């Protein structure tokens, strides 16, 4: 034994020799461990470690596991849990197999080492159980196939994973240590500091016998100490080990030899257990009683999946698919739903608390969290698994979609424990008596009141004021014509006149300022009108104007919207230059472009019924006090079934010239792509501050959008941009992006135009934008291309003529207006 091998081989061989020296007893092929016999065991030479069947910790009586133990604490486990009939056998083929019974031939688990030359097994005093060949070479070992624990002298490299239930722990090539749930959600990701990071080649993690979690790599001059056990370097025969627990936390434990089964937590990777994803199962809410995390359900709408084990999560008493259209959002204060990567990127949005609630209610989402920490973030959870956390210290508010009614938990349940049942009975009696008395009084008084006032006109007004309370809950309120007449002081203050009727400012009974739209020429019946109101009011998005209520009385059809302080976009884009106060810098314009696109995307792609707006123009883009865009008038041009455009022949063309896609005039199907066209024109106007159909000397007597494309081709971006922006801080890269996007949107062929969702991505800069081809209509010098049919032609030629007339910019306005009226006249 006293030869010295050449230097590179010295260390591994030394370990091999030491191991061999310690493991005096070989376990021959054919040996068997019996679950039924507690004396059936394979110990290490000095008895520190043992391989045997033991009762599975924290489980029902009768379940056993074949485990390698220290102090009766399992540090490695062979296969799943079994019963007392099972055996662990080192088969003559060299395979180590867990069999359900001594005579069985189909293993529950095996080491997959059959016929590779295994001649014996052995267990050393470091806790490594090995299968080796006749020249003592290790062919398989428990150190190389860890389950949930590593012990000193064992290590983890990038190819080894600790796992426990749905949780797993891994070291990555970058040296990052991660904890994952179900191989996807990363709820712990700890990296090296940047100096070490880039050079890592083959990181290896191990736990030193003294209690240090250590990372080594060929590129490090010395190993990095990542964590210290709190009993670090204390004397005694102590085993310290790193274990991924079934609760998803990674911990260092220590256990003194001989103190049967006692183990103490000395370090934990996740300090706040409630932040472990899925700790309380699906829909479970984690919180702390005194110092322990406890699991409960969000509300009485839920029940525990397993009443004996609250960690198994909660299930709904009524499934969402069993109550379509009757969903409600249950509000949970001081709670959040955990959101980690990779969910993080797709589930995080910027919006306030109410939009966070409403967007979840109307979408495919099942729960949402509004972080009230000043970040303005909202998580919309759309997966089928959510993990909650409740603590008085959490500033977030969360919402869970449930079948109405939402039934919050009674807060008392856990506090009551100490109170004697007799006292409780008395308390209940008092409560019941008081409640019955109160109820009786209310009924009597309510009856009297109704009797006195039932014929009074005031009654109606009062009832709708009560209905106003509902307005906060998102349902549309029905107003009487009289109320709205009063609220608008007899339709006095006109805010504007849209395509569907005039809009007036009003103050509702609860002092909310609102915009009241008096619809004109609506020939629909009451029922259909109500159905459309219901659709509009169920369409909630941060970038859509919210419908508060409606009025349908006789011939009167009115809609009540939230009031937007900064009126509509056209006031800012096309205001004359003297009104310098009404000027928007680039940052605001870009935000408006993006938020408008988001609102339209929601209409097209994200809400339950696809809505084509049909009249997108600056006049219909309203601005709130922070200059966020909110699209208005959606849903008024009727709900469009993408496959069915018959409605257009039923009602007149409502859209506005300049923003109408060519297919309107060509009598082709109207789809969401028609809105994309209109949006493209608006986007161009946001950049340029000029109407897309403006014709002037400066635009070479061409339509502005046409001229702009020519300038774009020449690379003259500055010529397109609003002169008021030049000289101010302007992100030229964003400007060019916006210009390119606008030309993509106004392509003549609907199929060439991007979907609205893609427009958002292009504006956000997450997508590369190809150079847009010439919008066909532009090259031909008419507002639409070749596919014009019959009756439209005369209108178009009128328009084309008016464009050909050289005129100053103010005069051209008139020409265009005349042209437009004739165009619409011909169409309708
Ligand atoms: C068993 O052997 C290991 C390794 O040699 C040693 O660290 C440990 O102290 C020994 N235990 C006893 C009780 O001798
Ligand atoms: C044992 O395995 C080692 C490594 O795989 C191999 O080099 C050696 O030849 C094997 N010995 C026998 C007797 O098969
Ligand atoms: C991990 O596995 C890959 C592929 O099996 C192998 O190329 C690599 O050498 C392994 N790394 C370590 C540290 O064992
Ligand atoms: C875990 O992931 C798998 C596949 O990704 C999925 O089928 C399964 O439902 C997930 N488990 C839970 C509890 O969500
Ligand atoms: C590694 O961890 C750090 C945090 O410690 C994190 O910022 C980084 O993104 C992680 N890297 C990877 C590849 O996950
Ligand atoms: C580690 O390096 C990678 C690429 O080399 C880098 O992306 C990452 O941000 C770095 N991580 C840290 C924590 O510096
Ligand atoms: C980063 O790691 C190096 C060792 O690789 C260490 O010397 C240095 O102090 C660490 N820096 C910080 C900020 O932790
Ligand atoms: C807190 O919960 C733990 C675990 O469920 C329990 O053992 C403990 O008694 C509870 N403490 C209190 C004060 O309720």
TrEMBL record:
Compositionally biased residues, Basic and acidic residues: 814-828
Tagged with keyword Repeat: no
Membrane protein topology class: Single-pass type I membrane protein
Root EC class: transferase
Catalytic activity, as annotated: L-threonyl-[protein] + ATP = O-phospho-L-threonyl-[protein] + ADP + H(+); L-seryl-[protein] + ATP = O-phospho-L-seryl-[protein] + ADP + H(+)
InterPro entries linked: Bulb-type_lectin_dom, Bulb-type_lectin_dom_sf, Kinase-like_dom_sf, Prot_kinase_dom, Protein_kinase_ATP_BS, S_locus_glycoprot_dom, Ser/Thr_kinase_AS, SRK-like_kinase
Endpoints of the signal sequence: 1-24
Residues that span the membrane, as ranges: 425-451
GO molecular function: ATP binding; protein serine/threonine kinase activity
Entries under Gene3D superfamilies matching the protein: Bulb-type lectin domain, Phosphorylase Kinase, domain 1, Transferase(Phosphotransferase) domain 1
Keywords assigned: ATP-binding, Disulfide bond, EGF-like domain, Glycoprotein, Kinase, Membrane, Nucleotide-binding, Receptor, Serine/threonine-protein kinase, Signal, Transferase, Transmembrane, Transmembrane helix
Primary localization class, coarse: membrane
EC number annotated for this UniProt entry: 2.7.11.1
Sequence positions that bind ATP: 517
All copies of domain Bulb-type lectin, residue ranges: 18-144
Keyword Zinc: no
Residue ranges annotated for the Protein kinase domain, each copy included: 489-767
Cellular localisation: Membrane
Region (Disordered): 805-828
GO cellular component, one term: membrane
Record-stated family: Belongs to the protein kinase superfamily. Ser/Thr protein kinase family.
Entry protein name: Receptor-like serine/threonine-protein kinase
